[in-house]
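User: Can you write out an input/output pair for a complex, sequences first and structure second?

Assistant: Here is one pair. Inputs:
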Amino acid sequence: MPDYSFAPPVQPDLPITGSELRYPVRRIFCVGRNYADHVAEMGGDAGRDAPIYFTKSAHTLLQSGQDMPYPPGTDDLHHEIELVVAIGGTATAIDRADAASVIWGYGVGLDMTRRDLQNVAKDAGQPWDTSKDFDAAAIIAALTPADQVQLSDASIRLAVNDTTRQESPLASMVWSVPDIVANLSTLYTLYPGDLIMTGTPAGVSAVVRGDVLVGTVDGLDPVQTRIV
Ligand code: MN
């Protein structure tokens, strides 16, 4: 190991259901506008030739069950509940039909968003980094290996203080998981440790300090946090 001038960052990781092992996180890709009802509520256009992407640093990861400090620079922090795909192989421009071979597993995640900053960025044609890629902005539950869950009929939902705010079948995604993995692998070589947050259904809304968020996908560990 080289002699670093200070201790290197801790490797971000996630728990694995039914295992003592951890999943080391490399990159976090996110898909935007992937449920038609959410595209409509955001005033966007659903007709596109390919998914749109943005990223969050792996160091924005917050473990499910931990409190999320209300972030600075915003008065409009929003929840977005999402299915998370965990990559376990190397993929460059793979076919849709081969996507499953590089999917290690799945999880439930919250793409926390400073909506006011995102709206300013959208209006000005500026990047989304400050609205999406900030401390504790990716909250993800324990991952489940792909062979231990069947998601074809599963639904995704989010409750805030026991009131359902978002709910949709996963089948309502504009771009399916194989579509996304295949397309993303034409833009990046995917490696084990890469996560993909696959977009959120309608019902996004603001949260305030004290709110308790619980997100679920049938068959997966729930994601949970409290805003403090
Ligand atoms: Mn999102």
